[in-house]
Design a protein that fits this description.
Chain A: Its EC number is 2.7.7.6. Chain A: It is an enzyme of class 2 (transferase). Chain A: It comes from Roseovarius nubinhibens (strain ATCC BAA-591 / DSM 15170 / ISM). The complex is a heterodimer of chains A (199) and B (131). With 199 residues, chain A is mainly alpha-helical. Chain A is 68% helix and 0% strand. Chain A has two domains: 96 residues, RNA polymerase sigma factor, region 2, helix turn helix motif (Rna Polymerase Sigma Factor, Chain: A, Orthogonal Bundle), CATH 1.10.1740; 84 residues, Orthogonal Bundle (Arc Repressor Mutant, subunit A). Chain A is built from eight helices and no strands. Chain A is globular. With 131 residues, chain B is mostly helical. Chain B has a domain of 36 residues. Chain B is 72% helix and 0% strand. In chain B, helix 4 crosses helix 5. Chain B is rod-shaped. Classes of the chains: A mainly alpha (199), B mainly alpha (131). The interface between A and B is large, with 60 and 42 residues.
């Protein structure tokens, strides 16, 4: 279950649709802006939230990333990049800027309430605890490892696309995700019982 | 990049364990609230390119001109109007004295040209409810 971030749409079709929508926006179609926002804002928000660990900051970053899309719309070169990839890159850079300005690490406002109608209270609590534990462990990773792991294993992107977003080689992406996962494993393994994963 | 050397992937068991955490995170993906959506769409509206506005103005002008043409009787009427306009310009430029004399005579009463309205009676009858 991937939820609102399902990647089932064909990438090529998405590219064509996105570019057509952006061109329509640049030509004055307000409905195109809404369609692009509905398609990309959730993904940009999710990435920003997992990078920053703060919903308020993530919303500011997501808004700024979309704002940059509106600004570049009249000059967008068709076929040069996927709009989704471009937005991820902009959001990643904005998150990096914020993380470098930060003194401490905010871990509040990590998770949305879960839909408890689908599971028992105990299972829901365990699920929420796992999300919080993962977020805490992610925030302890070096920033680039965190970015690669989030894009690969939570956002579900492929390594070539992540390489494009992070502007590194595919091999470097593989290395970052491998090291990030090892570090996460080391952080989370002692908490498995507490989180309802053992016994 | 020296800090990005490759290393072994976690084992299958470890990867499966981590996947439970990733799965939980994916199930709780944040959804943008109405306030954020409104802020983003307000930005989009504020930054809508100026060219789009002028294109909209041009299309409105074309539409209005088409409507006016239809109200005046379509292309035949527009052709007649254009021909009369060209003829008037031609007379004014080729024989300005003739045009000037005709206008002077008309206003001074010396002209033998009489203007009468052939529809005047009908209009009167219409007012009286004859039709």
């Amino acid at each position: 279950m991937i939820g609102p971030f399902r990647k089932s749409a064909p990438k090529g079709a998405g590219l064509a649709d996105d570019e057509a929508l952006l061109a329509a926006y640049a030509a004055g179609d307000a409905a195109a802006a809404r369609a692009l926002t509905e398609r990309h804002l959730p993904r940009v928000l999710a990435l920003s939230m997992r990078m920053l660990g703060s919903r308020a900051e993530a919303e500011d970053v997501a808004q700024e990333a979309m704002l940059r899309l509106w600004r570049i719309a009249p000059r967008w070169e068709a076929g040069r990049a996927q709009i989704g990839t471009w937005l991820y890159r902009v959001a990643s850079n904005l998150c990096t800027d914020r993380l470098r300005r930060r003194c401490g690490v905010a871990l509040d406002e990590v998770a949305e309430p879960v839909d408890e109608s689908q599971m028992s209270v105990e299972a829901a609590l365990h699920q929420e605890a796992r999300v919080e534990a993962l977020q805490e462990a992610l925030m302890r990773l070096p920033e680039r490892q965190r970015q690669a792991v989030v894009l690969r294993h939570i956002e579900g992107l492929g390594n070539p696309e992540i390489a494009g977003i992070m502007e590194i080689s595919t091999e470097a992406v593989e290395s970052l995700t491998a090291r990030g996962k090892r570090a996460l494993q080391a952080e989370l393994a002692p908490r498995r019982e507490e989180l309802g994963l053992d016994g | 990049m020296t800090g990005e050397m490759r290393g072994p992937e976690p084992g299958a068991g470890e990867a499966a364990g981590l996947e439970l955490f990733f799965k939980a995170a994916r199930a709780q993906s944040p959804v943008p609230g109405d306030d954020l959506m409104a802020r983003v769409l307000a930005d989009a509206a504020a930054l809508q390119p100026q060219g789009a506005a002028s294109a909209g103005l041009w299309s409105r002008l074309v539409s209005r001109a088409q409507g006016l043409r239809q109200e005046m009787g379509g292309w035949p009427a527009m052709t007649g109007l254009a021909a009369a306009t060209v003829a008037g310009i031609w007379v004014g430029s080729v024989a300005p004295d003739l045009a000037s004399e005709a206008i002077t005579g008309y206003w001074s009463g010396e002209s033998e040209v009489y203007v009468f309205d052939v529809m005047a009676g009908d209009a009167y009858a219409s007012l009286e409810g004859a039709f």
